[in-house]
Write a structure and sequence with these properties.
eight-stranded parallel β-barrel; single chain; globular; disordered N terminus; about 40% helix; alpha/beta; three-stranded antiparallel β-sheet
């Protein structure tokens, strides 16, 4: 491995950064956003794996006192979240194009460095937490955290087995050495993707670096560059060279920009785009190869027709030319490109429903069956695959869609937009989608694509990204708790303990958006000592139920 920090295992900043003008919360957040400090674990392959180390405050003496442990959370921010927040990501050593893919290595019994990295990241340094609980001298904290910290740990070998069974993917192009390995699969924490990219109104790619930073500070596990308009290649190159997370694209968008009109699309033009993007280092690509002529015809009676941009383009092309989808016809060639670069194919839901009335209809299910066929062809070619779906669907159909995907697509990782469970949430569709996301994630979906309040209404800005990502990180975490993902419960235990002991600073640091939580608290209970008060402004000092519970059972306490 090249140019990594040293020493590797316990490298940690000596103290949290001091609060400054960019951190009005007064919590010492890095750049006013991230709690704790950067810390590193060490994978079995010898690589440093970054985390945010959050030191919890001591229990107040009034509640019995006692030291609290350090918790570690995933840190996806790369160079944006350390030091000055500038610079480029550390470049990992990667095999040359044409080497065995992660799937081929897994089938051959080889534990790759990426698999070891994934295991260390997913384990959240829980072995270190167990050790610290023995030395804290706080029996209540030990009792509270010990069971969650002791949950089974992943190993590189267990990650390998999941990849070999095609129940997980590690999207990581051989030519994207800046990216840190990350696994998508139901056995791992639920991942969240954020979409960014230029439009015809954008000035240049520099704007996208700011969007990338914002997405990472909000906790995006992957980003998709959906750029249209000018300088698509330059934008993608700038993002790839700066992104510490995996980056996806939808190649049909750039193919259309080059062709000019949908009817001018061609396999040759698409192939050139896909090869160029793969050579640059794109980690996963949405490929709408399951939209067949017969499937598109099934949308004739829909209320909202075809709402996928890629699906709509290909449906129009097939209608005008009278030919079958060239992505389906040339899928073997797509597999050759993907296999050479270890590009994960995200088989696109071009016929997903755009209204709950159309949800889980014949068109959607016909495409899903074809995606299952394409997944099996991909396995034979050594290519990793995710399946996309399902759009707008009623709440009772959410779990059904997960089960249909598992049945028809051999339990390949499912990647969903939402799903949105009602059509009337304009301005609040991050909520309608997060409801569906939490339910389908609890049922087994591996990655959620975030939705912002601007969905259906306009291009999101930084505030929309922040709100949308918060909603979806909550949805993803709720799914992890429901699925019993090891270690997921630690944050909730810590938050509940902090609430019962009125450790306000810890409540803020453990929140999905610390600065926002602190600001809301201070709006109604501010001034000297407000963050040490043993009550909030909702109930006041006389009627706080947690205070009353302590008075009722003085010996009670968090974890007892």
């Amino acid at each position: 491995m090249t140019s990594h920090p040293s020493p590797l295992h316990d490298r940690r900043a000596s103290a949290a950064p001091a609060a400054d003008s960019s951190d009005p919360s007064g919590l010492g957040l890095f750049a006013g956003r991230l709690p704790g400090v950067r810390a590193y674990g060490l994978s079995d392959a010898g690589e440093p794996v970054p985390f945010r180390a959050v030191q919890l405050s001591d229990t107040p003496d009034a509640f019995g006192g006692g030291r609290q442990p350090v918790l570690h959370f995933t840190d996806v921010t790369g160079p944006f979240g350390e030091g000055t927040g500038e610079g480029l990501p550390r470049r990992r050593t990667r095999p040359a194009p044409g080497s065995p893919t992660q799937y081929e290595s897994a089938k051959a019994g080889v534990v790759t460095p990426e698999m070891s990295f994934v295991a260390e990241r997913e384990n959240l340094r829980r072995a270190d937490l167990l050790t610290s609980l023995e030395t804290l001298g706080n029996p209540r904290a030990k009792k509270l955290f010990e069971a969650a910290a002791s949950a089974p740990l992943l190993t590189g070998e267990s990650v390998r087995q999941l990849v070999a069974r095609r129940e997980a993917v590690i999207p990581l192009n051989f030519s994207h050495p800046e990216a840190e390995p990350m696994a998508i699969g139901r056995a791992f924490s639920t991942k969240v993707n954020a979409n960014i990219g230029t439009s015809v109104a954008s000035k240049d790619w520099h704007e996208e670096i700011g969007k990338l930073r914002e997405a990472l500070f909000c906790g995006a596990d992957t980003v998709m560059d959906l750029s249209t308009g000018r300088d698509i290649r330059a934008t993608r190159e700038a993002l790839l060279r700066r992104s510490p997370v995996t980056l996806g694209t939808v190649p049909i968008y750039e193919a259309l920009e080059r062709a000019g009109r949908p009817e001018k699309l061609s396999w040759e033009g698409f192939r050139d785009v896909m090869v160029e993007q793969a050579e640059q280092g794109v980690d996963y690509m949405t490929i709408h190869a399951g939209v067949l002529r017969a499937h598109a015809a099934l949308t004739r009676e829909r209320l909202t027709g075809i709402v996928s941009r890629g699906g709509g383009l290909l449906a129009l092309w097939m209608h005008v030319t009278g030919k079958e989808n060239f992505l389906y016809e040339h899928f073997d060639e797509i597999l050759e490109i993907a296999r050479r670069h270890d590009v994960t194919l995200s088989l696109g839901d071009g016929l997903r429903s755009g209204s709950v009335r159309d949800g889980t209809d014949k068109a959607q299910l016909a495409e899903l069956r074809t995606l299952g066929e394409l997944n099996r062809r991909s396995a034979a070619a050594g290519v990793q695959v995710m399946i996309e779906g399902p759009g707008h669907i009623r709440l009772p159909d959410v779990v059904r869609n997960q089960r249909l995907e598992e049945e028809l697509c051999d339990a390949a990782p499912f990647y969903t937009l939402g799903p949105l469970v009602t059509d009337m949430g304009a301005g609040y569709d991050h909520i309608t989608a997060a409801i569906g996301g939490a339910v389908i994630g609890a049922s087994g979906t591996a990655m959620l694509c975030y939705v912002t309040p601007k969905e259906h209404l306009g291009l999101p800005d930084a505030d929309d990204v922040r709100v949308g990502m918060a909603a979806f990180r909550i949805a993803a975490h709720a799914a992890d708790l429901a699925r019993g993902v090891p270690g997921a419960e630690l944050r909730d235990l810590a938050m509940s303990s902090a609430r019962f002991e009125f450790r306000w600073a810890d409540q803020f640091r453990l929140a999905v958006d610390p600065a926002h939580a602190a600001a809301l608290h201070d709006e109604t209970l501010s001034g000297a000592g407000s963050r040490d008060a043993h009550f909030c402004s909702m109930c006041g000092p006389a009627f706080c139920p947690m205070k009353l519970a302590r008075d009722l059972f003085p010996e009670s306490g968090s974890g007892s």
